[in-house]
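Consider one such protein record:
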Amino acid sequence: MSEVGNLIPVFAVKNILLSIEWYAKIFNFKVDWNSGCICSVSSGDHCLMLYEQHDLPTPSMAWIGLESETIFDVCKKNNVEIIKQPTNEDYAYNMKVKDLDGNILWLGTEPKSNGQNELHSHESSC
């Protein structure tokens, strides 16, 4: 029997208020709670903690599974730094972006089937 109740990524940020605004604007995250230097933001049952701590190593990375690829367009329209363009691979249609502090958000949906209009397509290169 597992003792783990949940597993939550924690990203170090330089300015918690700016980070909260960014996650709300780009991902429509809501603030669950905020104690000033640490907070939880979430979408549905999925949360991410932001920790205003300047001596923690960065960047961190988290996978965010998506219901659709509409967030890809939101990122582009809001000039989010894209470090991997949307790519169709055998495990997911995915892209990687950076938040304000350089933390990496690896966004993905189900892989596209052959024949769909995709920007890039190739087999996984792990």
In short: The CA atoms of residues 10 and 115 lie 38 Å apart. The helical segments are 16-27, 70-77.
